[in-house]
Amino acid sequence: MTGLEATTVMVEVSLSRGVLFHLTGLPDNAVRESHDRLVAALQNTGFKFPVADITVNMAPADLRKEGSGYDLPLAVGVLAASGSVRADRLGGYMMIGELGLDGRLQPVRGALPIAIKARADKFRGLIVPRQNVREAAVVNNLDVYGMDNLTDVVAFLNGTAQYSPTVVDTRAEFYARQDDFEFDFADVRGQQGVKRALEVAAAGGHNLIMIGPPGSGKSMMAKRLPSILPPLSLAESLETTQIYSVAGKLSRDTSLISQRPFRSPHHTISPVALVGGGTSPQPGEISLAHNGVLFCDELPEFNRSVLEVMRQPLEDRRITISRSKYSVEYPCSFMFVASMNPCPCGYYGDPTHRCVCSPGQIQRYMNKISGPLLDRIDIQVEITPVPFDDISRAAPGEPSADIRRRVVAARALQEQRYRPHPGVHCNAQMTERMIHQYAEPAAEGIELLRMAMKRLSLSARAYNRILKVARTIADLDGSESVGTAHLAEAIGYRNLDRGDWAERGA
After folding, report:
1. Cα-flanking dihedrals φ and ψ of residue 382, to 5°?
2. 283, 327, 381, 383 - which has most CB atoms within 10 Å?
3. Is the Cβ–Cβ distance between 300 and 369 less than 8 Å?
């Protein structure tokens, strides 16, 4: 595996007089250790490990081989060279799997991209451990066999036992799980303004930050955001599933991921864990959130270096990781959602608790988030706790399904609008030229913006963000043009850009 791409490795085995075992082709330690696993697995399953000088080459020899997934083809190659497996049956099958000492096959990472490669290389079939068979069987026009142990693989290759390829009704399973959400906005009482902001963010693909005291419901509402996002398409699901397959995070009964991912890393996360990489490159949290939501709770508590590495992926929606020994690229098109307290004590602006922080302390706390990162967040909304009496009297909230219908309708308008612009699918992805083309308000709207920027001391970077959000609000209303009401609501979502934010009523 290199990123999300698989490369076919040919295992060649030659026997000659002697007693040594030679393994060539740039294997890492995990591959070198396969010799001991092979000897034990063959002996414990009734096969004889050949007493000979065994030379194994893994071609292409200049490509570094990593991981334990080569155990199965190595074992089959040795058995074929010694005459225990019919060599004429090997050419049509690709195989991968780790061997236990008792000959059982253990799951490996990347079964889905490997299956895609097997089909592209026109192999007749793919043999994988039983635990990986459902994810690999997603690929059509390829026979995928899930095996439990080495004995089953040898019997299949020799033709002494018949096994049927696994067939997965991908579409039926995919659509059956799309609406099965654990969290629903119907459980949220009150907070109408914040729910509206989340609806706007979902409709336009906008990044969002919620600022409020502890217990105001920031995390609770963020967890419900995937339930109002547009359903995953099959193409999006396949790409997301590939990432989870490479990362080894697919459960055994999963064939395709049917809901948008929601990732919520702890604030102690390292930059490598966030963006990906490592000694053996793996996708990071931003790639695991691809086509979904990355939620950072208590944003100022994250290390500043961690936050800064997100700036480029937020714009490019892809991350390239270059090291001395490799260079890989992962997709990372995600909605960035964050929450934070308004001050170190957490109660600035809370009507029920007194804030003990000075304006200087509040400003230093806010400065933990850099301007360039804040510039990439379109919607900034303040949130206050709902009093208990209001919670007890409030009716259940609007179900997520109803909100989702409005979001899907708005996204459909955007897909139609941006069809002439490849790579742009929602309002949040608009370039500056497209903003002037599709979101330019009338004269009264321009005047409203001018007054707002002057009276609220809004920064210049807020201008384009306001227009993008206003375009989304207009789409939710089904309006072709951006009106003053849409602009007024969008202006209300730029709280942190106000010049007097840290001085108000501390």
Report:
1. -90, 145
2. 283
3. yes
